[in-house]
Amino acid sequence: MPPNRPIRLAIAGGHRGASFATALDLLREDITLTAICDTSEQVRAAWLKSNPELKAYDSFDRLTDDPAVDAVFVATPMTLHARQSVQALNSGKHVLSEVIAAVTLEECWELVETVERTGYTYMMAENYCYRRETMFVRNMAEKNAFGEITFAEGGYIHDCRDLNIHIDGTRTWRGNLRAGKGPSSRGNGYPTHSLGPVAQWLGINRTDRLLRTTTFVTQSAARSDWARSVLPRDHRDAAPQAWANSADSASTLIQTERGRVISLRFDSASPRPHNMVHYGIQGTAGAFLSRRHDDEEPLVWLDGISPGVSPANFNHSGMARPEGHETQGHARWQLLWDLSDRYEHPLWKEHGEDALRSGHGGGDYLVLRDFARAVSTGEKPPIDVYDAVTWSCITPLSIQSVQQNGQPMDVPRFNQNI
Length: 418
Ligand SMILES: NC(=O)c1ccc[n+]([C@@H]2O[C@H](COP(=O)([O-])OP(=O)(O)OC[C@H]3O[C@@H](n4cnc5c(N)ncnc54)[C@H](O)[C@@H]3O)[C@@H](O)[C@H]2O)c1
Description:
The chain is α/β, with parallel strands linked by helices.
């Protein structure tokens, strides 16, 4: 990449790509959108209507042949991410990949091998890692505010049933993953929104490593209920067994090398209002609880900083009570935001306003910004290929674990230096 020139970016997969319009506008000094690639004529036409200067490709092969494209944002259906990323890297392009990075272990290894061999920048666009709350907590964890973190949890619980069937009654790619008789999707099919931030808090692939994982799933019930209520009676996906190849809810446990435990939940079928954040941390000196719904705020308790005295310091055995106990009372949660002066992440201090103008709680803007910086400086991206496959491989491992009645599966060591 010649210095002082914006990166010439192409977006493959114009639907999700469209939600980056504000972020692209804000980052126009770093990135020039030059091309769009989508197999749908309708999607290409919509882009060209608002951006007539763009090149529009109907095939990924033609896009990767274009020498005037420096980097590709792969935002196509999930099952294509690894294959298209490998193709783009082999064609001399840098890659920003939507989540999840790969759906099989073979794809994970191929991605690693291709990035190592070609040397181009590869980053996974895990935007949940960039939300204000998750970066705030990451800054706290890096400053050791929680002491030794022993347990962390994350969940992606989002009723996405309406994304399974097109308006004409045919299955979408999501529907194809979960209905019919294809490969099993009884596992954690979308782990990176929950695991990504947690892995960063725990220093996974830096000072700790995922060792093994097990998953249990519920029966499949809510998709059938929904399908019966919206589809004609004789539609194949309204049949009682149509969604039996998937599960409503998956619970995953992961053990780390340092002895921590991570708990993840994935549920894209059960009916309930959406809440984008389901996280928690327990450490030896503090704890964090994300909000349970939009009307709540995230909470934190830090020993010696938050109001009140730790329950462990109360006198159960005749030992002296700590000073201040009479006036302070029991330990109490406080609002995370009350600690902004001390722990707001520097990136949010500097770019919070711009971030909030773009999608997904600011994540879309900051992901794109960090990718552009990694490409132009040649530095390691903040979410590199090893993070991408370590977080994404939970999908195939969870399916294998479920098939073997919850048997723990070893997490591959994708980088021998970690
Ligand atoms: N990070 C996030 O917050 C977030 C949010 C939504 C979706 N996603 C991810 O983004 C990806 C896309 O999701 P979506 O909801 O936009 O899906 P979608 O089905 O709405 O859109 C996919 C687009 O890709 C196009 N496409 C299909 N095959 C193609 C090919 N071979 N080459 C080029 N274009 C092709 C389709 O025509 C369609 O326009 C998924 O992997 C999803 O997991 C991430």
